[in-house]
Specification:
The chain contains five helices and twelve strands. By secondary structure, the chain is an alpha/beta fold. Strand 8 and strand 9 form a beta hairpin.
Length: about 300
């Protein structure tokens, strides 16, 4: 009896040790390359470790579904207008960075009331400027003739030059269309859901931080990183991993993809995109929105999409 008891106690001790050991192991790796979190990269580089909320979909999911639904506690979402967003969807899709989320990241956004929305123009101007003007039209409102950010539910960014961002807007609960008034772009959508977590129970009040957004970069350093003026641009996935971290922006997830749809182009990709291999980055920051947008302006200029 005594021996059996001791043996059982040892087995129990070993089991407890194994459970504690497994629970202590950092589960930083997803089941597929698109879900690998950069938090693991940050640890290897002795940078700050970021715990990723499972409520924010992965970059792979956003790329595949062209949709992103954010949890209720997000302060601001920065919607990127990618390079080549001036190209016509029906006639020139081969010139785009990708045929998924080609005109905005994402094409279809679902947020909760109180979350701000801002747009950032990353459509490079060499040699011709490509200013963007985005209107958000309330699909639930029969009268969409007025423009503004009021109850009519229609919002305009105004003209956004390269690297410029719009004034953020808080949209009431409803269904909206994203329309590019300058170019023949594919339309997107914004759906605003009720937010029971809104502290002030007021859809006109911002929730605050964090700031979430998406960003495109070539996966690898390209051979030709110069623009038409001869200036060099360092942008690549490795560069942005470091630059984002140094500027208080955490990479939540990455997804690598290839888009080579140009039959007559060397390498199969449109030359202005410099590569057919790209990465979608989903990022987060607790810094004030204004500071994040200043940093993103530089990040856009550093990109090689010129």
């Amino acid at each position: 009896m005594s021996f059996a008891f001791v043996t059982s106690t040892k087995k129990l001790t070993i089991c407890v040790f194994l459970v504690i050991s497994i629970a202590s192991f950092p589960l930083s790796f997803g089941n597929s390359p698109g879900n690998i979190l950069v938090s693991a990269y940050a640890q290897e580089e002795d940078s700050s470790f970021t715990t990723v909320s499972p409520a924010i979909p992965s970059a792979e999911s956003i790329h595949t579904t062209e949709s992103l639904e954010l949890p209720p506690n997000i302060g601001t979402f920065v919607m990127l207008i990618p390079n080549e967003a001036h190209e016509r969807w029906e006639e020139e899709p081969h010139k785009l960075v990708t045929d998924k989320n080609a005109y905005s990241i994402p094409t279809n956004l679902i947020i909760h009331e109180g979350t701000e929305l801002a747009f950032l123009n990353a459509d490079a101007p060499w040699d011709t400027p490509h200013p963007q003007n985005i209107e958000i039209v309330n699909n639930d409102n029969n009268d969409n003739n007025e423009t503004g950010d009021g109850p009519a539910g229609v919002y305009s960014t105004g003209t956004l030059d390269y690297t410029n961002s719009s004034e953020p807007v808080i949209l009431p609960v409803g269904s909206y269309s994203i329309i590019n008034t300058e170019y023949q772009a594919k339309e997107g959508t914004v759906t605003v859901l009720e937010n029971s977590q809104n502290r002030n129970n007021n859809s006109s009040s911002s929730i605050g931080s964090p700031v979430i957004g998406g960003f495109y970069t070539p996966t690898n350093q390209v051979e030709n990183n110069r623009d038409n003026d001869g200036n060099t641009h360092p942008g690549s996935l490795a560069y942005y991993r470091q630059a984002f971290s140094e500027n208080g922006i955490s990479i939540l997830s990455e997804h690598n993809f290839t888009y080579s749809a140009c039959d007559y182009c060397p390498g199969g990709y449109w030359p202005d995109n410099k590569s057919g291999d790209h990465t979608l980055i989903v990022f987060s920051s607790e810094r004030p929105l204004g500071e994040v947008l200043v940093t993103l302006e530089k990040m856009v200029r550093d990109n090689v999409y010129v």
